[in-house]
């Protein structure tokens, strides 16, 4: 035992206190940095020296600079935040579709259909009126153009969504590569046995983003590496990483570049976008196509072959289709919301028929029958032949709008719930890893007092040394 041993213990105490103050300063400086984990200096007693009368410690040593983080809380937060991302994306898309329909509205499809049936009713009251026939033609054109507009807007939304999904896939690939790079850096830095806190924080921020985009899960290895799984399949593990690719088909698909198997079970923002283009938009488009097909079929079935009258005196003629039928096959684009249009023969109001037979221009059988279609139930089918139910044309559209409103409300409610869950998960994680500046300031004072006490020991050793020197004189 020597005075030098006391000095060495005091020196180690000063160094430990100084490092602790430095780490507190680092915490305070990064208190507002997103994803930063609070750090702490871990101390241990230095190796003791054995003497005949016992063992005496040699001071304190720094064993590690650890970060405050809980893997289970990270997993819970990523699951909840990815759920929120998926719900928010779905709700936003459905709201956009609902806004597109704009029902109830004076310019929507419901109003256009009502105006179309009303125009036929007006023609039935005045079967010889050229103005009434012109109004029928204009109303029919308006119904067709409204369906065309809805289909075009849905196509545009679908295309924008697909471009965004493809961009997400590119971002996922970039993030996955960055995580692998951090895996390598962390393994190298932690080979000394010390925690690479800042590198782990940076990697966790990337993993948060990956989870939001894909709904994937992180698995941390005992080596310090992490693996990330999407839909139960590995995207990366340690130094290995796969690439995802987006295929713009119907439905759009995602797979790994080295595997032909389609990737399913994707969540997060990307999963929502895939669902929007694969299911949500096609469901609405299918019902609009069914309306267009039923409209073309039911109106043409009455109008085609009816009698037209033109000129003075009125000359009878044979009416053609009111709406175009293309090749006449049910799968022809003319039977869809995208392709519905007036028949090419309907070039003027004179081509609109009000009479069923050549019984005189005052006959209104056709106009009456077409006006009655407003309340007539028809069977709706998809392009593939699947039954969609029986209803009037207006009733089927209102049913479509109602289904969309229900789905939108459900998505918005889900988004609210998921937001609450994610907020609570973040609060729990932050309680463990975030920085409290008040706590850090208290620690600074504590470490300052420890430093001053150790420094006082140095002064005591100096006085003891002076005493020894004086004794030797």
Please work out how many helical segments DSSP would assign.
9
What is the helix fraction of residues, given as a range?
Answer: 55-70%
Backbone shape: rod-shaped
How much of the sequence lies in strands comes to 5-15%
How is the largest sheet built, in terms of strand order? 5-6-7-8
How many independent structural domains?
Answer: 2
Largest sheet, strands/sense/barrel: 4 strands, antiparallel
Distance between the termini: 23 Å
Low-confidence stretches: none
Mean pLDDT, to the nearest integer, reads 92
Round the Cα radius of gyration to an integer and report it.
Answer: 38 Å
Order of helices and strands: HEEEEHHHHEEEEEEHEEHEEHH
Please provide a written account of the structure.
It is a single chain. The chain contains nine helices and 14 strands. The protein is an alpha+beta fold and 473 residues long. It has two domains: 3-68 and 435-471; 75-186 and 272-420.
Keywords:
2 domains, two-stranded antiparallel sheet, alpha+beta, 473 residues, 14 strands, four-stranded antiparallel β-sheet
Task: Explain briefly what this protein structure is.
By secondary structure, the chain is of the alpha+beta class. The chain has 9 helices and 14 strands.
Protein topology:
Elements: H1 3-29, E1 39-45, E2 49-51, E3 54-56, E4 60-67, H2 71-101, H3 109-125, H4 130-189, H5 197-214, E5 217-220, E6 226-230, E7 233-237, E8 240-241, E9 244-247, E10 253-256, H6 268-303, E11 307-310, E12 315-318, H7 365-371, E13 378-381, E14 387-391, H8 393-433, H9 437-471
Antiparallel strand pairs: 1-4, 2-3, 5-6, 6-7, 7-8, 9-10, 11-12, 13-14
Helix pairs in contact: 1-9, 2-4, 2-5, 2-6, 2-8, 3-4, 3-7, 3-8, 4-5, 4-6, 5-6, 6-8
């Amino acid at each position: 035992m020597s005075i030098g041993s006391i000095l060495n213990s005091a020196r180690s105490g000063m160094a430990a206190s100084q490092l602790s103050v430095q780490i507190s300063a680092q915490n305070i400086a990064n208190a507002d940095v997103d994803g930063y984990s609070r750090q702490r200096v871990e101390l241990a007693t230095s190796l003791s020296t054995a003497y005949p009368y016992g063992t005496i410690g040699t001071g304190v040593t720094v064993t590690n600079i650890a970060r405050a983080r809980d893997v289970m809380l990270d997993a819970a937060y990523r699951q909840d935040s990815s759920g929120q991302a998926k719900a928010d994306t779905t709700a936003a898309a459905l709201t956009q579709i609902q806004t597109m329909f704009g029902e109830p509205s004076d310019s929507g499809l419901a109003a256009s259909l009502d105006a179309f049936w009303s125009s036929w009713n007006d023609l039935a009251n005045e079967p010889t009126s050229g103005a009434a026939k012109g109004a029928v033609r204009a109303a029919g054109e308006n119904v067709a153009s409204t369906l065309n507009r809805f289909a075009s807007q849905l196509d545009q939304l679908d295309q924008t969504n697909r471009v965004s999904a493809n961009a997400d896939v590119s971002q996922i690939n970039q993030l996955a590569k960055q995580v692998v790079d951090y895996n390598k850096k962390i393994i190298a830095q932690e080979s000394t046995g010390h925690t690479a806190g800042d590198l782990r924080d940076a990697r966790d921020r990337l993993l948060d983003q990956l989870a939001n985009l894909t709904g994937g899960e992180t698995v941390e290895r005992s080596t310090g590496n992490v693996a990330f799984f999407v839909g139960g399949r590995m995207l990366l593990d340690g130094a290995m990483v796969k690439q995802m690719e987006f295929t713009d088909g119907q439905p759009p698909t995602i797979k790994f570049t080295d595997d032909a198997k389609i990737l399913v079970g994707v969540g997060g923002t990307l999963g929502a976008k895939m669902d929007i283009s694969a299911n949500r938009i096609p469901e609405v488009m299918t019902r609009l196509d069914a309306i267009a097909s039923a409209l073309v079929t039911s109106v043409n079935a009455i109008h085609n072959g009816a009698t037209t009258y033109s000129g003075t005196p009125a000359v009878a003629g044979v009416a053609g289709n009111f709406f175009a039928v293309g090749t006449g096959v049910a799968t022809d684009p003319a039977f869809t919301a995208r392709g519905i249009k007036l028949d090419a023969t309907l070039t003027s109001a004179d081509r609109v028929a009000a009479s069923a037979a050549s019984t005189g221009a005052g006959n209104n059988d056709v106009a009456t029958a077409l006006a009655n279609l407003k309340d007539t139930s028809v069977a709706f089918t998809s392009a593939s032949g699947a039954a969609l139910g029986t209803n009037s044309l207006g009733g089927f559209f209102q049913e479509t709008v109602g289904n969309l409103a229900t789905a939108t409300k459900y998505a918005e409610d889900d988004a609210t719930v998921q937001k609450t869950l994610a907020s609570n998960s973040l609060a729990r994680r932050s309680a463990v890893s975030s920085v409290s500046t008040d706590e850090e300031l208290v620690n600074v004072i504590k470490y300052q007092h420890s430093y001053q006490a150790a420094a006082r020991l140095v002064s005591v050793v100096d006085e003891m040394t002076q005493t020894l020197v004086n004794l030797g004189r």
